[in-house]
């Protein structure tokens, strides 16, 4: 029974470490895209690594298990979540002008789809 608890805790820790690596990868790719002018953004997932590590901490039968929380401490998404209140107090998100594609106009849609038809019945 103890061996299965250890194996399950290790699997949960590996899953948490995988989430940490993916979060760092998302930040790296998003910053690279921003430098290149690409409007694609990859989001991070905060607290997932902390939840997985917390469950592993509850399951693992060892006494010196506090080192497990180094995994979520290395997660950039958790650090971003800690900085969220400061960022919101300093101004929050900056809204950019809407990007329109080349074929669109800013004219309102009237709903009259037959506007190209000429009415020749006028006297």
Would you write up a description of this structure?
With 123 residues, the protein is an all-alpha fold. It has one domain. 53% of the residues lie in helices and 0% in strands. It has four helices and no strands. The protein has helices spanning 2-36, 48-59, 70-73, 76-89. The chain is elongated, with a radius of gyration of 26 Å. The N and C termini lie far apart (95 Å). The model has no long low-confidence stretch (mean pLDDT 82).
Topology:
Layout: H1 2-36, H2 48-59, H3 70-73, H4 76-89
Structural class: mainly alpha
Distinct helical segment count: 4
Strand-and-helix sequence, N→C?
A: HHHH
Q: Main beta sheet, described?
A: none
Q: Runs with pLDDT <50, length 5+?
A: none
Rounded average pLDDT: 82
């Amino acid at each position: 029974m103890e061996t299965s608890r250890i194996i399950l805790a290790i699997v949960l820790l590996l899953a948490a470490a995988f989430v940490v690596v993916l979060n760092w990868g998302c930040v790296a790719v998003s910053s690279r895209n921003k430098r290149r002018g690409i409007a694609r953004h990859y989001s991070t997932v905060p607290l997932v690594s902390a939840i997985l590590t917390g469950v592993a901490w509850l399951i693992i039968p060892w006494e010196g298990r506090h080192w497990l929380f180094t995994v979520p401490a290395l997660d950039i998404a958790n650090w971003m979540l800690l900085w969220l209140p400061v960022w919101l107090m300093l101004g929050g998100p900056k809204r950019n002008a809407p990007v329109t594609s080349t074929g669109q106009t800013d004219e309102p849609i009237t709903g009259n789809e037959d506007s190209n038809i000429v009415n020749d019945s006028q006297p």
